[in-house]
Prior knowledge:
Structural class: alpha+beta
Strand order of the largest sheet: 2-3-1-4
Order of helices and strands: EHEEHEH
Shape: elongated
Largest sheet: 4 strands, antiparallel
Amino acid sequence: MLFATRYTFKGDQSPDSVRALLAVFAEQGPGQGELAHYVLADGSGGLIIAENDSMQQGYEDALRYQQWMDFETTPILTIEDAMPALGKVFG
Protein backbone atom coordinates (compact mmCIF):
# COMPACT_ATOMS: atom_id res chain seq x y z
CA MET A 1 0.00 0.00 0.00
CA LEU A 2 1.05 3.56 -0.65
CA PHE A 3 0.89 6.12 2.14
CA ALA A 4 1.29 9.89 2.11
CA THR A 5 2.45 11.32 5.42
CA ARG A 6 2.44 15.04 6.00
CA TYR A 7 4.38 16.20 9.02
CA THR A 8 4.50 19.59 10.67
CA PHE A 9 7.04 20.79 13.19
CA LYS A 10 5.84 21.55 16.69
CA GLY A 11 7.10 23.09 19.89
CA ASP A 12 10.65 24.19 20.50
CA GLN A 13 12.61 24.79 17.30
CA SER A 14 15.70 26.10 19.05
CA PRO A 15 19.10 25.20 17.57
CA ASP A 16 19.56 22.54 20.28
CA SER A 17 16.18 20.95 19.51
CA VAL A 18 16.84 20.95 15.77
CA ARG A 19 20.28 19.39 16.32
CA ALA A 20 18.65 16.64 18.42
CA LEU A 21 16.06 15.99 15.68
CA LEU A 22 18.76 15.83 13.00
CA ALA A 23 20.81 13.43 15.14
CA VAL A 24 17.85 11.03 15.38
CA PHE A 25 17.21 11.34 11.64
CA ALA A 26 20.90 10.69 10.86
CA GLU A 27 20.83 7.59 13.07
CA GLN A 28 17.53 6.23 11.68
CA GLY A 29 17.90 7.23 8.02
CA PRO A 30 14.95 7.14 5.63
CA GLY A 31 11.86 5.30 6.80
CA GLN A 32 11.15 1.79 5.59
CA GLY A 33 9.57 1.85 2.15
CA GLU A 34 10.21 5.56 1.64
CA LEU A 35 9.87 6.47 -2.03
CA ALA A 36 10.09 10.25 -1.77
CA HIS A 37 10.60 12.89 0.91
CA TYR A 38 9.75 16.51 0.19
CA VAL A 39 10.25 19.52 2.45
CA LEU A 40 7.62 22.27 2.40
CA ALA A 41 9.18 25.50 1.14
CA ASP A 42 7.59 27.52 3.95
CA GLY A 43 9.62 25.56 6.53
CA SER A 44 6.57 24.19 8.33
CA GLY A 45 7.19 20.50 7.65
CA GLY A 46 7.23 18.03 4.80
CA LEU A 47 5.61 15.20 2.89
CA ILE A 48 6.73 11.57 2.66
CA ILE A 49 5.47 9.00 0.18
CA ALA A 50 6.10 5.41 1.30
CA GLU A 51 5.09 1.92 0.23
CA ASN A 52 4.56 -0.64 3.00
CA ASP A 53 2.37 -3.66 3.69
CA SER A 54 1.07 -2.19 6.98
CA MET A 55 1.09 0.91 9.13
CA GLN A 56 3.35 -0.72 11.75
CA GLN A 57 6.61 0.84 10.52
CA GLY A 58 4.99 4.25 10.04
CA TYR A 59 3.68 4.07 13.59
CA GLU A 60 7.15 3.22 14.95
CA ASP A 61 8.65 6.12 12.99
CA ALA A 62 6.00 8.49 14.32
CA LEU A 63 6.80 7.44 17.88
CA ARG A 64 10.51 8.20 17.32
CA TYR A 65 9.81 11.72 16.09
CA GLN A 66 6.69 12.70 18.07
CA GLN A 67 8.67 15.09 20.27
CA TRP A 68 9.35 17.31 17.26
CA MET A 69 6.53 16.64 14.78
CA ASP A 70 2.85 15.99 14.30
CA PHE A 71 1.88 13.46 11.61
CA GLU A 72 -1.10 12.86 9.34
CA THR A 73 -0.95 9.69 7.24
CA THR A 74 -3.37 8.85 4.44
CA PRO A 75 -3.50 5.72 2.26
CA ILE A 76 -3.20 6.74 -1.40
CA LEU A 77 -3.49 5.22 -4.90
CA THR A 78 -1.77 6.06 -8.14
CA ILE A 79 -4.14 7.48 -10.72
CA GLU A 80 -3.60 4.33 -12.79
CA ASP A 81 -4.81 2.17 -9.90
CA ALA A 82 -7.76 4.49 -9.24
CA MET A 83 -9.03 4.61 -12.83
CA PRO A 84 -10.87 1.23 -12.86
CA ALA A 85 -12.90 2.21 -9.78
CA LEU A 86 -13.56 5.67 -11.20
CA GLY A 87 -14.74 4.07 -14.43
CA LYS A 88 -17.13 1.72 -12.57
CA VAL A 89 -18.65 4.45 -10.45
CA PHE A 90 -18.71 7.34 -12.90
CA GLY A 91 -18.36 5.63 -16.27
